[in-house]
Design goal:
The complex is a heterotrimer of chains A (about 120), B (about 190) and C (about 725). Chain A is an alpha/beta fold and about 120 residues long. Helix content of chain A is about 45%, strand content about 20%. Chain A has one domain: Rossmann fold (3-Layer(aba) Sandwich). In chain A, helix 1 crosses helix 5, helix 2 packs parallel to helix 3 and helix 3 packs parallel to helix 4. The longest helix of chain A is centred in the first third of the chain and has 13 residues. Chain A is globular, with a radius of gyration of 13 Å. Chain B is an alpha+beta fold. Chain B has one domain: OB fold (Dihydrolipoamide Acetyltransferase, E2P), CATH 2.40.50.180. In chain B, a hairpin with a 2-residue loop joins strand 9 and strand 10. Chain C has 20 helices and 23 strands. The chains are: A alpha/beta (about 120), B alpha+beta (about 190), C alpha+beta (about 725). The interface between A and C is large, with 46 and 47 residues.
Chain lengths: ~120, ~190, ~725
């Protein structure tokens, strides 16, 4: 089954995402900010990265930028979890190389549907 | 055993349902007593206790039960029966009940464990009202099995030592013989 | 698949409360003159997380309310708005309000939205009048009109012209995924699907970059599907790819629906457009997104309305059910501490297997190895115990964090100028102690502000700066933590305390008291020197309660004061409630334990030291004090071989009511003991604070020194009565 890296500074969101994905059979690892995610991503290849945007230490946009610099993550889908109502964050995410976004609030089913589409 | 089950049993007991309950019976001074088996956590041999200062005489002290401090009650003295020397066969039944303050564990010292009976509530009779002493409040009912009378005990009441009762009983127990008990009780009030 | 989201609620509440604390402390730290962007970011992030979580976990009231403050914060963060004091005040009010709402929700009650709604309206007003703010206006118009009319035409299907940007793959957007989705979409309604690939843009092989995408496609979807469903599939790439949709009609009409404004994509151009459409945000997709948000907002507002009605209905029935919070407290532990524990358990396992092996083939020649092994086991156990205890330890900043806000609000209320300094915030303290020390500390800080510090005019008159200073200082001292609450105010007024105590009958005129004894009077029940009872420090209930709470934690409080220079209240607390340094003593066959901190000294008794007053009561002169003597064997009714006091050991302990000498048979060793509850399965026992388990597995009781002490004062009263 596909491996997913879930990045969010909010424990409850991270738990919810991780629980949902694990329930669907994905292999999930969690990170609570961009820099932790980057460290983990360097030690293990993931099939998909799911990241919050607003995080301390390293935010989601920076994370995407850094991940895309790594050869292993050049083409890996990276989805942003965003609550931004304005398009600015989405734009910034896209510019940095994010594949797409999932708008919060979302429910587990919406999350799974999107992930399934991306991973096939 | 779990608390919900226990509570259900207690709730049911007044309504005479036909559900059978299992009781562990034990012998004390020739009589057979029964306690709800769901309240029995384990059965142990007697071991020396640490005495609690100024406790009523039926509280023999506390023991360490795998890290928990558990008080041990001598049921003979609780029921004002003549006390006997503890021997290697003296048995401690560890009882556990659920109270609003949480779980409560206590051991009772009895002469010997007898057996397990399935008893339905409808076979149980209330204890005769003539026995007018403190012990009746611990008695849930009486039941006959093969011509033997078994006294069923209410474990919840047995383990709930409320303070007033404690002081009362300790005063009663200290140096008073059983004849003057009732009289003394009146004086107290 | 349905997932019960309520399992995450507790975590959500906990982190939201943490988030609110973070917002509060950062708001208080904000300096309007010089706004630190990281501080604003931190506040924004906290609000943002709460909003996101609340939306996800179904607390629409919270997310709706948080949205307005998030918007304001976002404007400040992005520089669209300058922060004003009013904003900080409002945001702080929101923090309080959110705390209330969260607590209600956590307890399973419907929150009262009245205050939140009021604040929200206030926010919306503030948000509405920003000259800088014109981009955020949500007049998304009606972008779907076109869509609707076109979708009417599209019953036969759609043609999609998809010319991806060259680096589409580098964003992880695989065109194949979109085709797959389009195919699923078409086949779901029994339609068909064709893809035509255009290779004309392929460069020469030598010029080809392997990561770039040079292909473009035309997709024919022969199915009755909505354009919006197709658009959704391309949602993530619409901004940097050229996508055009045209309805596929049987008549062959070729009305082209432009997804991207004409000006940007010259008709018929085959080469992919460059990234020049980044600058434009007005394509239908973004408007549609804006409209989605509008929809959500109105839904949130609806739900708020419903809640308010529910609340009203409840109020009408005049039944306000307050369910008791069923929270299970949890604790956050740093990975370091866990890793440390795991290491130690590892060592313990090694020692255990070593000892196990030794036991299997043991003979006396190996006794030394056995001893070594046991010593190692002891060390492992001790380290493990310390580490486990450390898990319960939290930095005292958890208790301190509320003070900046408290001091700020109080000083405003009292028209005093106060500078709060907090030192030693990283000093660690047991979680349980932390929870219980909060209220006493609040009381002391309030007291210092209210009674300790003078008003600015008075300070200036006395040659001080107008700004008073309160210092909270925490540090470890021996096995205790000391917390000081210090002010540079007027100091305690000895004469007034004395007069008050006389008036209340706490002392008599003839009592010759030291300064320390006079100061200690403020801890007596019912004592208050405030001329005017203010709603800050309250009435009468005060220092005695503080003292009692601290004593319950096995701690102590002292006050020292210099007139005109200020006062220091110092609280001394044990680091943990779970472990105690004990002195073991023997009486008869029983072993009892004194808390080591309470012991003043231990002496071998000689009859000549004792004076007999009223028959059975002995006292002993110990330097300047007369110390009452009690025999444990008497008060506990223990049989012991010892007949009189000569040669017995006397342990002098100090509790709440002063010193008392306790006669025991023998002093045994000192050791750390783990405190176990006696009350849980039994009940409270006079003069006993708990029990513990000794090395041999037996139970020993821990003495409650203050309890022993009241026993002697009771006895004194009794003997008075008997004498009379």
């Amino acid at each position: 089954m596909a491996t997913i890296l879930a990045v969010d500074d909010s424990t409850s969101m991270r738990q919810m995402v991780s629980f949902t994905l694990k329930g669907a059979g994905y292999d999930v690892r969690e990170a609570c900010d961009g820099s932790e995610a980057l460290d983990i991503a360097k030690t293990q290849q993931f099939d998909l990265v799911l990241s919050d945007v607003n995080m301390p230490v390293m935010d989601g946009i920076q994370l995407v930028t850094e991940l895309r610099k790594l050869g292993e993550y050049k083409f890996v889908p990276i989805l942003m979890l965003t609550t931004e109502s304005s398009g600015d964050t989405k734009m910034a995410g896209k510019k940095a190389g994010a594949t797409g976004w999932i708008v919060k609030p979302f429910n587990p089913d919406q999350l799974l549907n999107t992930i399934k589409k991306v991973l096939g | 055993m779990n608390a919900a089950q226990l509570n259900n049993k207690d709730a049911d007991s007044g309504h005479g349902t036909d559900d059978e309950q299992q009781y562990l019976t034990f012998i004390m001074a020739g009589e057979e007593y029964g306690v709800d088996i769901l309240a029995v956590q384990e059965i142990r041999g007697w071991e020396p206790t640490t005495v609690i200062p100024n406790a009523p005489n039926y509280i023999k002290g506390v023991i360490n039960l795998r890290g928990t401090i558990v008080p041990i009650m001598d049921l003979r003295s609780r029921f004002n029966l003549a006390s006997v020397e503890y021997s290697p066969v003296t048995v401690v039944i560890i009882l556990k009940i659920e109270t609003e303050r949480g779980e409560r564990v206590m051991g009772i010292v009895v002469d010997a464990v007898s057996e397990v009976h399935a008893i339905s509530d409808s076979d149980t009779q209330n204890s005769p009202d003539l026995i007018e002493d403190l012990n009746t409040e611990f008695i849930k009912g009486l039941v006959s099995i093969e011509d033997n009378m078994i006294i069923l005990l209410d474990v919840n009441r047995l383990l709930t030592i409320d303070k007033q009762l404690l002081t009362l009983t300790s005063e009663l127990a200290s140096g008073l013989d059983s004849e003057s008990t009732a009289e003394h009780e009146e004086n107290k009030q | 698949m349905s997932i019960d989201l309520s399992q995450f609620h507790q975590v959500f509440f906990e982190e939201s409360f943490e988030g609110l604390d973070i917002m509060e402390s950062n708001l208080l730290a904000l300096n309007i003159a010089e706004v630190d962007s990281e501080t604003i970011n931190t506040i924004f992030r906290a609000a943002h997380s709460i909003k996101g979580g609340a939306g996800t976990f179904g607390f629409m009231q919270i997310s709706g309310f948080t949205h307005v403050l998030e918007t304001l914060l976002d404007e400040i963060r992005s520089g669209e708005r300058d922060i004003e004091q009013e904003h900080i005040d409002m945001l702080l009010q929101c923090v309080d309000c959110l705390r209330g709402l969260m607590s209600d929700l956590q307890a399973g009650n419907e929150p009262d939205m009245a205050q939140a709604d009021e604040l929200k309206i206030h926010f919306e007003k503030v948000l509405a009048n920003n000259s800088k703010n014109s981009t955020e206006s949500e007049n998304a118009g009606e972008p779907c009109v076109d869509d609707k009319s076109t979708s009417e035409q599209g019953r036969a299907g759609w043609i999609v012209h998809f010319i991806p940007c060259e680096d589409v793959l580098c964003t992880g957007n695989e065109p194949y995924r979109m085709f797959r989705e389009l195919k699923d979409l078409a086949e779901a309604v029994n339609g068909s699907f064709e893809v035509e690939c255009h290779r004309q843009s392929l460069p020469k092989f030598s010029e080809m970059h392997p990561e770039m995408c040079y292909l473009s496609w035309t997709i024919h979807i022969r199915a009755d599907v909505e354009l919006s469903d197709i658009e959704e599939i391309f949602e993530w790439v619409v901004d940097d790819c050229d996508i055009r949709y045209e309805p596929l009609s049987d008549s062959g009409s070729d009305t082209t629906v432009e997804a991207v404004p004409e000006s940007l994509v010259p008709e018929g151009e085959t080469s992919p457009p460059l990234h020049n459409n980044d600058a434009v945000n007005t394509d239908p997709k973004v408007s549609a997104a804006a409209e989605d948000n509008l929809k959500i907002d109105s839904r949130e507002i609806d739900s708020c309305e419903i809640d308010r009605n529910e609340v009203k209905a409840k109020a009408n029935a005049s039944v306000k059910v307050t369910k008791k919070s069923t929270e299970t407290t949890s604790i956050r532990v740093s990975i370091d501490k866990i890793d440390g524990l795991i290491n130690m358990v590892g060592e313990l396992v090694i020692t255990q297997s070593m000892l196990g092996q030794l036991g299997q083939e043991f003979d006396m020649s190996r006794i030394q190895r056995l001893q070594e092994g046991l010593a190692q086991l002891e060390q492992n156990t001790r380290e493990l115990q310390e580490s486990v205890m450390k898990i319960r330890m939290l930095p005292i900043s958890f208790a301190f964090s509320r003070f900046p806000r408290l001091v700020r609000d109080l000083s405003k209320q009292l028209s005093k100028e106060v500078d709060l300094e907090m030192i030693g915030e990283n000093t660690e303290l047991d979680k349980t102690v932390m929870e219980k020390i909060g209220d006493p500390l609040v009381h002391l800080v309030r007291n210092s502000l209210d009674h300790g510090l003078e008003c600015p005019e008075e300070r200036i008159r006395n040659g001080k700066t107008s700004v008073g200073k309160i210092t909270l200082n925490a540090f470890h001292h021996g096995g205790s933590i000391v917390i000081e609450v210090k002010d540079d105010g007027a100091g305690l007024n000895k004469d007034r305390i004395r007069d008050k105590a006389l008036e209340k009958g706490l002392i008599t005129k003839d009592d010759n008291l030291t300064d320390g004894q006079i100061y200690d009077l403020i801890f007596q029940p019912g004592f208050s020197t405030a001329d005017v009872v203010s709603d800050v420090s309250g009435r009468g209930v005060g220092m005695d309660v503080v003292k009692r709470n601290i004593t319950e934690l096995n701690g102590s409080i002292e006050v020292s004061s210099i007139p005109g220079e200020g006062s220091i209240f110092s609280i001394r607390l044990p680091l943990t409630l779970a472990i105690l340094d004990g002195q073991l003593v023997k009486v008869g066959n029983e072993i009892y334990i004194f808390p080591l901190v309470s012991i003043v000294e231990s002496i071998q008794l000689e009859k000549s030291m004792l004076n007999n007053i009223t028959g059975s009561q002995y006292v002993m002169q110990l330097r300047n004090d007369y110390v009452p003597i009690i025999c444990l064997q008497d008060i506990f009714n223990i049989k012991t071989a010892r007949q009189d006091l000569e040669g017995a050991m006397l342990v002098v302990v100090e509790g709440d009511n002063g010193k008392v000498g306790v006669v025991v048979d023998e002093l045994l060793g000192q050791q750390q003991v783990v405190i176990k509850s006696l009350e849980k399965n039994y009940q409270k026992v006079d003069s006993i604070s708990g029990a513990t388990i000794l090395g041999d597995g037996t139970v020993a009781l821990i003495l409650d020194v203050s309890g022993l002490n009241t026993r002697t004062s009771d006895k004194k009263n009794d003997s008075h009565i008997h004498a009379a």
